[in-house]
Amino acid sequence: MFNEKVHVMDHPLVAHKLTIMRDKNTSVKDFRELVSEIGMLITYEATRDLPLTTKEIETPLCKAEMPTLAGKKFAVVPILRAGLGLVDGVLRMVPSARVGHIGMYRDEETLEPHVYFSKMPKDIAERDIIIVDPMLATGGSAVAAVTEMKNRGCKHIKLMVLVAAPEGVKAVQDEHPDVDIYCGAVDSHLNERGYIVPGLGDAGDRIFGTK
After folding, report:
1. Residue 51, preceding bond cis, omega within 30 degrees?
2. Which residues contact 180 (CB under 8 A, 6 or more apart)?
3. Which of 63, 91, 169, 203 could form a disulfide with 82 if both were Cys (CB 3.0 to 4.6 A apart)?
4. Which of these is catalytic: 10, 59, 110, 193?
5. Tens digits of per-residue pLDDT, 62-121?
6. pTM (predicted TM-score)
7. Is 127 among the catalytic positions?
């Protein structure tokens, strides 16, 4: 159904944690913690291609040349506000990453997303980027976020979400076929209100307790 740019996590821990998140009775505290935990697990896959070099260290037994990250610059960019819930999980895996932020509003007539806030590290164009947002529904926000990062000169961009709808995946692939998408699950479809089904509701409200 999707090409090799779409990476769906085939892992029991991700599936189990997503099921708890989907339950409407899961508390705000547990939901927030699960967002971060799944974020860590997906980051593990999304960083599989980070380049390595070696350095000499001394173990308790001997000196040895051992692998270490090549120091390639890395940044995580949450789409406000729900994307903030994923940042901690990424930073726990890549503590040296910088963090940019993108805020958007939706035009009520055209339903098109518009960037109202964009604050990035000065050297963002030189960094590998992971854009994070819990839900990939219609794909409008994700497409606009990738466009914003490309306009800033970024060349290596990935998108990381917890749950995606086929419509959102297609929208991103149609507009930005070079972007890898990492997701915990691809659900059935969008309903008439643009919510992912079965989904997990409004991720932002459930993360911040504003439902």
Report:
1. no
2. 5, 6, 7, 46, 158, 159
3. 203
4. 110
5. 999 999 988 778 999 999 989 999 999 999 999 989 999 999 887 767 767 888 999 999
6. 0.91
7. no
